[in-house]
Amino acid sequence: MNRWLNILDYAIISLLRRRRKQIALVVIYTLVVAFFASVIFFTGALRQEAVYVLSDLPELWVQRLAGGRLVPIAQSKIDSIAVIRGVKRVLPRLWGYYYDSPSGAVFTITGSDSLPKGLKLLDAAIGGGLDSNQVFCGSGFPETHFTGLGQQLGLIDYKGCLHSFEIVGRFSSQSDLLTRDLIILSPSAARKILGIAKNNYTDLAVEVWNPDEAETVGRKIDRLFPSVRVVTSAQLRSTYEALFSHRGGIFIYGALISLFSFLILAWDRASGLSREERQELGILKGIGWQISDVLWMKFWEGAVISLTSTICGLVLAYLHVFYLNAPLLRPFLIGWSVLYPEYRLQPAFAFSEVLLIVMLAVVPFIAATIIPAWRGAVTDPAEVMQNG
Amino acid sequence: MAEPLIRAQKIVKTFNTGRSNELTVLHELDIEVGKNTFVLLKGPSGSGKTTLLTILGCLARPTSGNLRCMGEEVSHWPEKFLTRFRQKYIGVVFQNFNLIGGLTAFRNIAAALIPRNLSNKAIDARVRSAAEQVRIGHRLDFHISELSGGEMQRVAVARCLVGDPQIIIADEPTAHLDSRLASEIIWLFNQMKRNGKTVIVATHDPLVQEQADIDRVLCIRDGQLQPEE
Amino acid sequence: MMPRIRVSLIYLYVLLALVLLFTSITLTGHTVQGRQRMEGERRIAARFLLSDLCLSTESRHTRHLSQPELLAAFQDLPGFHDHFPSSSFIRPQKLNWQGVVAQETLRRE
């Protein structure tokens, strides 16, 4: 034990000799690790949020295509799908986009007659379903139009007529990640604005009795109706996985490249053991250090620098992503838009991710310090005497 | 008669074996060094003094021949055991002192104790006692760049003494020193001998021969021992 | 004189403190409010059948990531004209009139 502490003592004092250089090294190293870790934390948290928030949805989504484009689906399809074995319920959806020229933003209009009860994040003035002149909306519209609960919201329908709605419910900004751009209308009003004919729907959500059979049922629907596309919840989730690993991936690669270029630089610096350093290793061997002692000393030198930087980097990344909401990373990972959702992510802490960061950041650096020292350490101690 | 402290038989040292620049520096040397003696190795530069010293000090192994040291046959030991042996019994004072730059005198002396399993307290005590022996105790917290030549020299000797070695080997310890400092270091070596150590010094400085408490002089020329003068 | 303090021990304490700091912020960062918020969002998604997060609202391709148009090529490319030019690197432009201005903008470029 004493021997370890002695060697660690020597390693630290040895580092402190070139204090300014080592501090600069630790600072740069910390920033590189913080960048890399930020990307991993951020994508991890978003992925967690997506998987959790979308976990209660029906297993299948059915859309009708014509010429490769989404077209409304008729009531008759709902009836035919509902009788397929294994299907529990078919829930038609009415939704579409609405470009709002005053704000330059695109909103999502959803038609729904669901009751607002039991939703904590919806501040609703009514208890029942929406009337045809009432609306629930996310924080996006009121913010861009400086309106609020009880005030009017104007929408232009597909024929060009202006319709006015009373805002009777507003989603809390806490749920921005899901509801920022939402405008929820009664089904009849939504049809009017979106230009969807009666008895037509945008697409269908299909619930099945046994989630394990979702694939089979989906394939059956796909076979029965040649013009439809079936999306499963698993595909939906994997889209998010793919998105974050694709966009996140670019940044992870970027961060990896910076990490490695930094390590290559460090390697370059460390591998050319200067004459002075070789001399020092020779002296240490001459006064009774084993090769292993010298290598342990070098190991601790590398470990002190890399462990300190990695942990500082992890702390910085954590604060950046979860306390400051990743200001440096967000636009790059989720893109810019007019309705920019502001949200505070719930940390997703995965031990494996931290372990990955530590491995990637610490191991190569220690290797970069030890391997050149190896060559210096195996030289004959007699050489120091010969060279004077 | 008791076995001598060091007994070297037919020591040969060849560098670059098997290559075109093969060079045999020592030719079948036989040397015995008794306990508590002061041996002076003399000879012109390039004669093989330093090489012999590295072999006697277990810093290098001979190409052939046998070396017994402290009753152990060490000539064919692997590096690891040799280092451990050296750590225990042998102290080295290098030419130019070879102190480690940027560290304090204390850390330089303590460096020799680092690989040993000693507590912080024990290291402190030993470094202080070694430093007191060479009267450098008051300068322990100074960086070696702040020390004078004489002080650096004493730090180097303290570093050699701190492990309490039986055998002290020194290579040109007075080189680059003025005669006052040289006398001082010779005085230190005499002290060590008085304390029961065996001292082997390689030098061609006549001052050492004049002032040191020498028991034996070995002359070496072209890798062979010359008859004693 | 006191024996010197071991710098190694000081360092190990500092390192331990940093590790504890990191563990404590990771443990406290995971808040009950955050859980409740996510739970609330989950209910909203289920009630109104929202299949996607509102990550980027710039076009139909990016708004509903899981249900994109099949024939819309280069959906994440900034210059794609069915897509108000905005992406990771380009801020959205404010358009006065949908469609026409977007085309003109493209031609100017």
Description:
The radius of gyration of chain A is 31 Å and the shape is elongated. Chain A has helices spanning 2-16, 19-53, 75-82, 140-145, 176-179, 187-194, 214-224, 233-271, 275-286, 291-323, 330-334, 351-377, 381-387, and strands spanning 60-66, 69-71, 73-74, 87-100, 105-111, 122-124, 134-137, 152-156, 162-171, 182-185, 200-201, 203-208, 228-232. Chain A has 13 helices and 13 strands. Chain A is α+β, with helices and mostly antiparallel strands and 388 residues long. The mean pLDDT of chain A is 85. Chain B is of the alpha/beta class. In chain B, 32% of the residues lie in helices and 25% in strands. Chain B is globular, with a radius of gyration of 18 Å. Chain C folds into two domains: 7-48; 60-108, no CATH class. Chain C has helices at 7-29, 32-48, 60-63, 100-108. The longest helix of chain C is centred in the N-terminal third of the chain and has 23 residues, at 7-29. Chain C is elongated and about 70 Å long. Mean pLDDT of chain C is 69; it is low at 73-85 and 95-109. The chains are: A alpha+beta (388), B alpha/beta (229), C mainly alpha (109). Chains in contact: A-B, A-C, B-C.
Observed structural traits:
heterotrimer; A: 388 residues; alpha+beta; 2 domains; eleven-stranded mixed beta sheet; elongated; B: 229 residues; alpha/beta; six-stranded mixed beta sheet; 10 strands; 25% strand
